[in-house]
Structure to design on (234 residues):
């Protein structure tokens, strides 16, 4: 199953405070789009809207050409939308194996889930009996991705994968994310600091105070935009 993801003029609010002011974004099947921007810009909210966890006030959410605005998060998950939240989304008190075992709700067997997980992240096989919370941050992030892959995602939404990880670990994780995209998954990656994700991103968008200020290739112009942003000239 492959799908593109589109946001058209999306506004979203927490109570009376609007935090997204008309966001337009498109992630094609097989593409990686990096959504960058400073603290509080609305990046996580954008992912939450895409997963149906946060309602759209106005605008449209379109999945594989189908309008899914207002759809229940469970229906979007069933349609292949997988959100991996910041903070890794693993059960820290359970072993790696049990974290994967829980994904049998997808209808797959434990063996099938482990096969996919261990092929992509061989270290998880070595750590199968280890309690997830005692693994390194990078290994936990691999486990979170492996759990996500068990859902056969068409759209993968990744929030700050790099949080607290060493640059080399982040680079390796993003190489895997790039490979996942090449299998036809639409990947939307939120990052505050850009470097590693830009190596694999097809496009980037910069969100500032709930508005997309730049959208285009991850090239020199983007780097200038980011420099201006982080040097505070916006
Ligand atoms: P960060 O990089 O710091 O995680 P972000 O770009 O992901 O930031 P969001 O987390 O989407 O930004 O937050 C956007 C705005 O919405 C912020 O001003 C934030 O305080 C506010 N906000 C986020 N979640 C809630 C909530 N549950 N209730 C009220 N306001 C919220």
């Amino acid at each position: 199953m492959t799908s593109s993801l589109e946001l058209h003029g999306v506004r979203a609010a927490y109570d009376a405070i609007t935090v997204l002011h008309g966001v337009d974004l498109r992630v094609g099947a097989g593409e990686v789009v990096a959504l960058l921007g400073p603290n509080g810009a609305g990046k996580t909210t954008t992912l939450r809207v895409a997963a149906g966890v946060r309602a759209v006030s106005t605008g449209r959410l379109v999945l594989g050409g189908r309008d899914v605005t207002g759809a229940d998060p469970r229906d979007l998950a069933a349609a292949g939308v997988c959100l991996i939240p910041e903070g890794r989304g693993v059960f820290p008190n359970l072993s790696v194996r049990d974290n994967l075992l829980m994904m049998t709700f997808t209808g797959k067997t434990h063996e099938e889930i482990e096969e996919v997980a261990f092929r992509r992240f061989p270290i998880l096989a070595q750590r199968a009996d280890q309690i997830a919370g005692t693994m390194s941050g990078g290994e936990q992030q691999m486990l979170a991705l492996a759990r996500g892959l068990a859902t056969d995602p068409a759209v993968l939404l990744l929030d700050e994968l790099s949080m607290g990880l060493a640059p080399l670990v982040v680079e390796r994780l993003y190489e895997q994310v790039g490979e996942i995209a090449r299998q036809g998954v639409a990947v939307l990656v939120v990052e505050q600091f850009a470097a590693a994700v830009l190596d694999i991103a097809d496009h980037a968008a910069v969100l500032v105070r709930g508005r997309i200020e730049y959208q285009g290739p991850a090239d020199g112009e983007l780097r200038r935009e980011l420099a201006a942003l982080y040097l505070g000239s916006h």
In short: The pocket of adenosine-5'-triphosphate is lined by residues 14, 19, 37, 39-45, 192 (CB under 6 Å). The chain has a mean pLDDT of 92. The domain at 5-80+154-232 is CATH 3.40.50.300 (Rossmann fold).
